[in-house]
Design brief:
Elements: H1 10-46, H2 60-122, E1 177-178, E2 201-202, H3 213-227, E3 233-238, E4 241-243, H4 245-252, H5 262-265, E5 271-273, E6 284-286, E7 291-297, E8 304-311, E9 315-322, E10 333-337
Parallel strand pairs: 2-9
Antiparallel strand pairs: 1-3, 3-4, 5-10, 6-7, 6-10, 7-8, 8-9
Protein name: NlpC/P60 family protein
């Protein structure tokens, strides 16, 4: 597992800490030099020219001005020393904070690694709590038995159920069908979600050259919803499918409407988990919170890819995002629809 899952590189924190230590050492060196300067200035300031034998010597006035300057320098040096002392303390405090942050990230990363190991040992798909999935990507839906608002799912105009063969089950009805809860009534956040026609649309288009007819069909169905700029509502159906993330993937994968939720998409009867190196356009990235259609790699390093998704903030959109998803979310794993080569 990479340390960049948290949106920050541990190497960067280490470099910052090293830089702070370097600054601290330079401050200590400056402190020593400052002490020598203060000692020299103190001796100069201690000279009482007015009562010395030099008072009658020509040029005494110049020496007196030099003494005044020395006293001014002494005052400035004292202020500089105080400032240096303050900065030194702050540097020490910042170094401790950086160390604490690094320890915290390492602890979190270790915990997630242990959880992933437990998941791999079980070799089975997670079950939905209460049978419904969460779509917390919205920022308002919650997990638990209610499944982030996926209870009482609206029926599609064609009255489809879950499951089915890999084929187009869309109805061709692009009107908005919303249940009694209203467009945003399913959400506990109270926020407004994009309406149909307000989605971001197609910002990046997958390359379909050389793809099988099945995979082209998956991408075409996903892009169709992005091109119509559908919004986001777990209580609404358009073209036979729920207007949310799992509704889009259900439509793309040729499942019957109104579509499964995120947990249902991970059921062994529907899909199976694959490795990152096995990903092909038409597969999906799924977590318990959200899901997107994988449209192909956007760079040779395989750190970014084209995702076709329906999110609570952008509606339906096809765009380039980091792999596996934005920092702070997940964990996400690649899945392939059963029966797709």
């Amino acid at each position: 597992m990479g340390s960049d899952k948290f949106g920050v590189q541990m190497q960067e924190l280490a470099k910052i800490q090293k830089d702070w230590h370097s600054v601290s050492e330079r401050m200590n060196e400056m402190s020593k030099k400052l002490g020598q300067i203060e000692e020299t200035i103190a001796k100069a300031v201690a000279v009482d020219l007015a009562s010395s034998q030099l008072a009658g010597i020509p040029g005494f006035g110049i020496a007196f001005e030099v003494l005044k300057d020395a006293k001014d320098i002494a005052a400035r040096a004292s202020h500089l020393a105080a400032t240096k002392e303050k900065l030194t303390k702050e540097i020490a405090q910042d170094a401790q904070k950086i160390k604490a942050v690094m320890s915290e990230y390492e602890a979190i990363e270790h915990k997630i690694e242990q959880e992933l190991k437990k998941h791999d040992k079980k070799h089975e798909k997670p079950k939905s709590p209460g049978g419904n999935g969460s779509t917390r990507i919205d920022g308002g839906a919650k997990g638990g038995s209610k499944g982030g608002g996926h209870h009482e799912q609206p029926k599609s105009p064609g009255e489809h159920d879950g499951g089915g063969d890999l084929k187009d089950h869309s109805t061709g009805d692009w009107k908005t069908h919303t249940d009694s809860r209203g467009w945003d009534g399913w959400s506990t956040s109270g926020k407004r979600h994009p309406r149909n026609g307000e989605g971001k649309g197609v910002e990046a288009r997958p390359n379909m050259d050389g793809l099988s007819a099945e995979r082209k069909g998956i991408l075409d169905r996903a892009l169709d919803r992005a091109e119509h700029k559908l919004g986001y509502s777990q209580s609404s159906v358009t073209n036979g499918y729920r207007v949310d993330c799992s509704g889009l993937v259900s439509a793309a994968w040729g499942l019957k409407g109104p579509g499964l939720n995120t947990w249902g998409l991970m059921e062994p009867s529907v899909s199976h988990q694959i490795g990152k190196s096995d990903l092909k356009p038409g597969d999906a990235m799924i977590s318990g919170e959200h899901t997107v259609i994988f449209g192909g790699w956007a760079d040779a390093a395989h750190t970014r890819y084209i995702a076709i998704e329906d999110s609570g903030s952008q509606g339906c959109v096809s765009h380039v995002i980091p792999y596996p998803y934005y920092p702070g979310s997940g964990p996400y794993h690649p899945y392939r629809r059963n029966g797709v080569e």
